[in-house]
Structure formats: structure tokens, C-alpha cells
Model the fold of this input.
Amino acid sequence: MIVRAVISKSEKDKNKHQLLIEGYGLTQVMRTPGIDFRYTTTNHILETQQVLGIEAARQTIINEIKYTMGSYGIHIDERHS
Done:
């Protein structure tokens, strides 16, 4: 269920846009015309596991930990992931 969606222009390439969605529904978002599913991400671990598999869920956990720790200036070496 998608609660809210925000479309913004990419800072890197002004011809591209980002679609930020609040809620869940990874499968529906990935099937949306005009959305490049290769660049679609979510921080919902269980939904990632259901849609993309256990390895994608594992990588999502790693990405979220790195993002959170990086916000505090803490670097995690790649050997620990």
C-alpha cells in the first residue's frame, strides 16, 4: 500500500527523476511503466526477501547498517560485510 509518493529531479542528471515512495509495494513499483527496476531499492527487509530473495535481503541489511553508521561518521570495513 503506497501512502505517499514524491517525484524529484535527480541532482546528477537533470533529465532523470527519482520516485520516493512511503509505504510498501515493491513489486508494483518495479512493474510501473517508466521505472527502471534495476535501480529500485527499499529498506523493508521482509518485502525485499519475499520479492528478490534472501541474498537481496542480506544486502539490504548491510546497506542500511552502513547508511546509519555513516550518518554518524563511522566507517565499516568491507571485510565485515
Remarks:
- The chain has a mean pLDDT of 89.
- Helices lie at 26-31, 45-52, 54-71.
- Strands lie at 2-9, 17-23.
- The chain has three helices and two strands.
